[in-house]
Fold this protein.
Amino acid sequence: MKYVVVDDENKDSDGNDLDDAVNNIHWETGDSHAKASKALMQLLGLPVQQFNPDTGEDEELEPDENKSLQFRAAFRNNDNLVEWIGKGTVGYNPKLDSSEFDLVIPLSSLKGNKPALGNHQGKLLFGLVFEGELRRAKPGWMLLQWFSFEVLEKDKIIDNLRKKCDRLSQTYNSITDLGM
């Protein structure tokens, strides 16, 4: 795969975002947010077909530019040693479809050893969060980041959080009540 390592905090002389100074383009990466071509997003599992009940057949879907996937990635060199690992989110960017690259990964996604900024080619290993085991999650601040307040209200998540906050505030002055 051909990929580009960029600095998502890079700016041009006028202060405009310019994450890729090597190719002189802004791929619209962000803090731990990579961008991928349509082919890579499909390979990673972004739905590309949907059943149409009117025709009884599957229809091709265009990738949703607003849908991101959580990923983990690693690059192994010719000696099969891991040179770098990365994690974050990856979203579709149509600019990559007309380029020679399939992935643009920002430095902020890379952990430990980091490759040089610029163009690279090699075999990347990917893992995706949605391929992980089914697990029950407890509400946290990320719910507000990933879902609109209206959706959280509709699903009664906000009501449940309010009840738990009320219970917690009632136990504030009693360690016994807090333990119940």
Observations:
- The chain has a mean pLDDT of 83.
- Residues 157-170 form the longest helix (14 residues).
